[in-house]
Amino acid sequence: MGQLKAIIGLANPGSDYAATRHNAGAWLLDALLQGSGESLRPEKKFLGRYARVRVADHELHLLEPSTFMNRSGGAVSALCQFFKLTPDQLLVAHDELDLPPGVARYKTGGGHGGHNGLRDTISALSGNKNFHRLRIGIGHPGDARLVTNYVLGRPGKAERQAIDEAIAESLATLPQAVEGNWAKAMHRLHSFSPAQ
């Protein structure tokens, strides 16, 4: 596995979407940058907002695409081309309907599971699915027809708190992931259960 070099937080652009469930990937970047003195700044060549941060003595590129979710791949591919990154050096953070709020899981490879941001990222990486994902649980509305409004809706207070706790726990495992110790990072994150 390649050394982790970049984290991409999938999101929709603009203030209308900032607090919606679909932007959970961007919430992770915000949490990671808190207290670092760094912030995401618009970077035209990456079609997104970009920052650099150090984790466990490794420099990480952080990118939040400024395109809509279903066009996320352009930003990912621009970042990869500029810094000569391979898919296995990427961690893509995204909202996950199949996990409840308060749960986050690492995963490497696999399909897009109907997630438009992942679908476009895989397409932009020439079909290469071998990147790491951080799946941030947002829960499911219970009916496929309700999904669009659900992911573009805002979580309630307790729900958002649970998501933030899962993000905090994800960040606590990030040094291990950055060091390439995915097994350890996964074990810790996957055994975390939110406070009831």
Give an account of the 3D structure:
This protein has helices at residues 24-33, 72-83, 116-124, 147-151, 157-178, 182-190, and strands at 6-9, 41-43, 48-55, 58-65, 90-96, 104-108, 132-137. With 196 residues, the chain is α/β, with parallel strands linked by helices. The protein has one domain: Peptidyl-tRNA hydrolase (Rossmann fold, 3-Layer(aba) Sandwich), CATH 3.40.50. A seven-stranded mixed beta sheet has the order 2-3-4-1-5-7-6, with helices on both faces. The radius of gyration is 15 Å and the shape is globular.
Low-confidence stretches: none
Number of helices: 6
What best-fitting shape do the alpha-carbon axes yield? globular
| The first-level CATH class name | Alpha Beta
**Overall pLDDT, averaged?**
95
Q: Tell me the strand percentage band.
A: 15-25%
Main beta-sheet strand count, sense and barrel state: 7 strands, mixed
- The largest beta-sheet arranges its strands as 2-3-4-1-5-7-6
Order of helices and strands: EHEEEHEEHEHHH
